[in-house]
Amino acid sequence: MNGIIGYGTYLPSGRVQLADIAATLGIKAGKGARVVASFDEDSTTMGVAAACTALTGAPNALFFATTSPAYADKTNATAQHAALGLPDDVFAADVAGSARSGIAALKAARASGGVAVLAEVRVGRPGSADELGGGDGAAAFVFGDSSHAIAEVVAEYSTTSEFLDRWRAPGAGGGSQWEERFGLDEYVPLIERVVKELAVDADHVVVVSPNSGVVKRAGTLVQGRLSTTSSPIGHAGTADVGVALASVLDNAGPDETIMVLSAADGCDGLLLRTTDRIIAGRQPVSVAEQLAAGTKVPYATYLSWRGILDREPPRRPEPDRAAAPPSARARAWKFAFTGTTCTACDLVHLPPARVCKRCGAVDQMTARSLARAKGTVATFTVDRLAYSPAPPVVAAVVDFDGGGRYTLEVAESTGADLKVGARVALTFRRLNTAGGVHNYFWKARVIE
Fold first, then answer.
1. Are strands 151-160 and 266-274 parallel, antiparallel or unpaired?
2. ChsH2 C-terminal OB-fold domain location, by residue (predicted)?
3. What is the pLDDT of residues 2-16, one digit of tens each?
4. Is 0.90 topped by the overall pTM?
5. Structural domains of the chain ordered from first start
């Protein structure tokens, strides 16, 4: 299982302008925008989006890396496992704790022929380096036999060192970092050692680190013959190495070498060589294209989404907590959007049913997941009274290609961008959180 056979990234559409942060806080914040997850997105949902792009079949295992888990004492990877419709004998586990967990997930996926899902919602105190220089996003990499690989693993080398550069106590709202220069001085010899051990003049070099000094000096530490890059969205925790590597795979040609260096609590090096399958195996929408497709989010709105700004909630009844027994009984429907198709008349039922609505056949159904299906808006409504952290709530009746109709909430829409006949796809989101329980389901998103 010595090669990457598929990959995918997901960058949420929200963009907070750094100028907006600067004007609000009265600080210098630089230029550009920060990539931010919406109120109904978390590391679990973004990981599902990235994995949907990467996977073409069932992997042997799923390893989910994040430092911003939706649950602290529950396996978050199992929700991804269910949303992806994976067989129950596919192992799924979380790998959490630090930015280095992303590398750990990649190593575990390579060893097992599995998929590594790296996702992060990067939260920091207002005006902090995490807020200004961070980014939210996800990446997924599927490993398999070299004969099917778009990039083979040629070599790897790691060093481990204990020193206090970046840390966050459990329950803390944001992380802390020691003086940048101290961390840089510790990391430089580790990076140099890994580069020496890999011993190649690489075509492309990726350097990522939670220490901004390392990223700033990347070009002087080691240079690729064709490119030297770091994460294009700012530091993204465990997802940092994944988004950066994916951005190189989006552009690399056949038979080119890629050296990946991740300096976090040590230094991990990975040397890849692309194959002649790289061009055909690229993800359909590149990191650069996703980055350019964002929409503005007011800074105050972003702060309220992250729970940093405690705004008056909508004066509506809050949602009830999702109950465990009905969620378990409807697992395939709730997580994988699996309906049923009548074997007698081919009518697709959403949600699943035992009795056909058309011909009345009983228990003559086959399961069918529409999680990756596309559809057309038959009609829609804009609800300004329903409870939502980002009103209004837009709901659309969707006719799916190949059969099936269902009413879904439309993600990131005010209704102004929607019309009858609009084309939509599905996106896995968090409908609400009540009593500490996250209620996951699917929403529609406009694609045309």
1. antiparallel
2. 374-429
3. 899 999 999 999 999
4. yes
5. 3-305 (3.40.47.10), 324-446 (no CATH)
